[in-house]
Design brief:
The protein is built from nine helices and no strands. It is mostly helical and 248 residues long. The model has no long low-confidence stretch (mean pLDDT 84).
């Protein structure tokens, strides 16, 4: 694993003009970054437009792993007119970006450092590491994007399959309900048919002529009484034998 060069510290072009800067630098050398930050805060209040003070305050913040705040201070320090301070500010700014996994920004800041100081071996080394991490990060992002797209497609396919299944289930249920309705109608018709036939027979019976009904009644009575039948036959024979009646 490649190891980066660390942050540059204690750049002090205004040492003779600020006791607070001197105190802060001494605390940083003693490894007391939190106490150094207090001193640098006072120095910034005294000299808010001095890039070197912002640079030193940024180093204290970086030592406390407050890299976002450190980056803001180093960015202010890049406004320095002194080339050495400006290059150091871009170098530390690049390190702060790197610590936050902002590899693209780190690469650009290291390049700005080398533009100001082409012989800076620390910047060259860290730039190679940053470029390697950037390629790895880009590859990971591409893989994550591919996975996300694939998952999205799979989710869509699953949804389409589920929607299709739901539609088929609804259709099957509808067909099943229709079959039940047809079967129910058939049962009702089968149940009603005997009643209709009986009613039809009753209607037909009621529509028979009265004479036919009477004839049937006579026949029924004749079949029930043979004696009556003989009487009817005798009466008919007597009528046929009688001479015709004359009017004169």
């Amino acid at each position: 694993m490649m190891t980066m060069f660390p942050f540059l510290t204690a750049f002090d072009p205004v040492r003779s003009r600020s006791a607070q800067v001197e105190e802060g630098n001494a605390k940083m050398k003693a490894g007391k970054a939190d106490e150094a930050l207090v001193a640098y805060d006072k120095a910034v209040a005294e000299l808010p437009a001095e890039p070197g003070v912002h640079f030193d305050r940024g180093t204290a913040l970086a030592a406390l792993s407050r890299f976002d705040e450190a980056a803001e201070e180093f960015l202010r320090a890049t406004e320095a007119k002194d080339t050495a301070l400006k290059a150091a500010a871009f170098y530390n700014l690049a390190n702060a970006f790197f610590k936050k996994d902002k590899f693209k920004e780190a690469v650009e800041a290291y390049k700005r450092t080398l533009a100001l100081d082409p012989k800076d071996e620390r910047a060259k080394w860290n730039l190679e590491i940053a470029l390697k991490k950037q390629r790895e990060d880009d590859k990971k992002k591409e893989q994550d994007k591919d996975k996300k797209d694939k998952d999205k497609k799979n989710d869509k396919d699953d949804k389409d399959k589920q929607d299709k299944k739901d539609d088929q289930d609804k259709k099957d249920q509808k067909d099943k309900d229709q079959d039940k309705d047809k079967e129910k109608d058939k049962d009702q018709k089968d149940e009603q048919k005997p009643k209709d036939e009986k009613s039809q027979e009753q209607d037909q019976a009621e529509q028979k002529p009265a004479a036919e009904k009477e004839m049937e009644s006579v026949l029924d009575s004749l079949e029930k009484s043979p004696k009556d039948l003989e009487k009817q036959r005798a009466r008919l024979r007597a009528v046929r034998r009688a001479p015709p009646t004359r009017d004169w």
